Amino acid sequence: MTGKVPLFSPDSTVSSARPSYVALCLALQVYRLVSAQFTVAGSDHPVTASLGGEAILPCHLSPRMSAENMEVRWFRSQFSPAVHLYRGGQDQYGEQMLEYRGRTELLKDNITNGRVSLRIRDIRPSDDGPYVCFFQSSVSYENAVLQLQVEGLGSAPAISVEGHQDGGIRVVCRSSGWYPEPEAQWRDLRGQLLPSASEKITPEANGLFQAEIAIVITEESNQKVSCCVRTPRLNQERESEISIAELFFPRVSPWMVALGVILALLAVLIPLASYCFWRQHRAKDKLQAELRWRRAQIYSVDVTLDPDTANPWLVLSEDRKRVRLGDTRQDLPDNPERFDPFPCVLGAERFAGGRCYWEVEVGDKTRWDLGVCRESVSRKGQVTLTPEDGCWVVWLTGGEYSACTSPSTPLPVSVRPSRVGIFVDYEAGEVSFYNVTDRSHLFTFTGTFSGKLRPYFYPGLNAGGTNAAPLIICPVPAQARGNLGP
User: Fold this and answer.
1) Could you give the 3-state DSSP secondary structure of residue 406?
2) pLDDT for residue 15 is more than 90
3) What pTM was estimated for this model as a whole?
4) DSSP strands (E only) in 71-157
5) d(CA 278, CA 54)
6) What are residue 370's DSSP bridge partners?
């Protein structure tokens, strides 16, 4: 609303104001608060950038509104320090991550329309991954997640002949300076793929990758081949060719042929045996993880939420077993125990020793944090979720599961967890997380605890970006506890 509605006629006085005008004034104030709500949108597709070049990450508000007086923060796995921070009408570099110093610029030409893209210069391999665009006004805040894909085209393949092998000539192809990890192939004159004798993709000191692939060319096989190294993201490749003259091939004796057959059989049997051993080892690890999880269930405790610590944007159920991110900020006392502005809440239970376990239903939510933290953790301002700051937390953000270490540790998850189990062994200094859906182990923090620990919850968003779905503290089935044994 751009116009103003007069509350009184020009010849009226304060004492003659009618109640209808007062009601209209209150309605206008409510409308202004509601109209201040917004959503944040970024790019629907990953943004690609070449090594050494620059990337522009787009982000805007919907509906269009000015962001000049808002806080605009770009960050990665942790809220602070930031990749870039705009606050109070100007860029703030005091909270910027060291690796982005002098490399970022907030494009503010359209900030009055709510568009603030981030430019990153001198692109490096470490810049690859998710970025969070965060807007905060005086009454609301929202964010969006964007993906930056860093790509680097490596050197032209260098081919060298390295002697005789298995009745043929061993030829090796090398290429460096690739990002992300490339693929390497041998091809014949018709472009058909040829089997390689060995293949190695190794990281270099600068974060890039080097490819090395070998082939044994025999007199009967193709004597002219090409080495192709490509990156699947760019769908670009570099290729070099080599031709071996017939006079360079050794004459093969029958016993060498027999030896070649034996080696070929070993080349098949050894990988097969290795695969069987790997399958057996994997099954054993999975069984051990399930047994650890079942033993942890013995120590299940009844966890409830502490409303005195809940951020005003959070909505707790009457039984204090559910929490979700609400649509409006509640008028709650600003007591020292309450988190503000970070929308999280602690459990009412405190642990100063022993072992305890509880489970939380996360459903299909696309953003959540779970874990434990020291009772003395800072409640005001930004919360840093690392063990050094008294928090042992696992989160889901941008479709990726991570343990909040410094730096964060990505977690490989084969089955999406709809329920997560948390187990604390105080004396052992361990906080373990389990995927209850497939009974697998997610991650274990190790260290030394001091003081009291409390359960930690951040409900985030559910699928579709809405706030409706809650985190639910679930009871551990009595049947599961009863079958565990000592």
Assistant:
1) coil
2) no
3) 0.44
4) 71-75, 84-87, 90-92, 104-107, 117-120, 129-136, 141-151
5) 42
6) 394, 457
